[in-house]
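Dear colleague,

Thank you for sharing your sequence with our group. We've completed the structure prediction you requested, and as agreed, I am returning the results in plain text so they can be pasted directly into your records. Please verify that the sequence below matches your submission; if there's any discrepancy, let me know and we will rerun it promptly.
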Amino acid sequence: MIGPLDLIAAPVLGPIQLIHWLGQKLIEAAESEMYDEGRLRGELLELQVRLDMGEVTEDEYDEREESLLTLLSAIREAKP
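Please find the predicted structure tokens below.
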């Protein structure tokens, strides 16, 4: 229930609460993207295609693949 004090404080606290809420949503979105296994698997597939097309060298492929697999492993370990 909204009381009289809430109405008086709304012009001051409202923008602060909005910024806090928006910050939380941005954090949630970033974490969701960061922990998205599908995105990493897609990057691995794209990397394989680029190797097959000659757009990246074997060394570049190996380096990026290792990085992506490390991230994928970390995501899987971080999940409960």
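Summary note from our side: The radius of gyration is 22 Å.

Kind regards,
the structure core
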